[in-house]
Amino acid sequence: MDRPELLWRQFELHVGLYKHYLELTLKMNAAYYAITGAIVSYVLAHREDGMSRAGLFIPLVLGVGLVGLFIYGAVMLRYTRQEMISIRDELGLKTIPELNVLTVLLWLSAGGFIVVSAGVIFLWRNG
Known about the structure:
The protein has one domain (3-126). It is built from three helices and no strands. It has helices at 3-45, 57-91, 100-126. The chain is rod-shaped and about 70 Å long.
C-alpha cells in the first residue's frame, strides 16, 4: 500500500471516529440527565424515606466518572487534531473537520456534570 492511500485511510478513520464520538457524547449527556432527573425526582418525592437518598449515589458516581472521561477525551483530542493537520498537509488538502467542536462539547459537558454532581451532593447532605 502506498503512502497516500495509507494516509487517506487514516484520515477516513479519524473522521469516522470523530462522528461516532460526537454522537456518543450527545447520547451520554441525554442518558445521564435522564437518569439523574428520574432519581432526583424520586428522592424529592420520598423525602421521608431516608433510604431513598442512597439512590443519589448512582448519579454521583456516574457524573464523576463522566467528568474524568470527558476531560481525558478533550485533552487527547488535541493530538488527533495535530495528526489530522499533518495528514492534511501531506495530502495537500485545504481543510479538516473542525475537531474543536467536540473538544468544546466535552469541556462543557464535564462542567455540567460537575455542577449536577455538586447539586446531588447538596441534596444528599440536606435531603
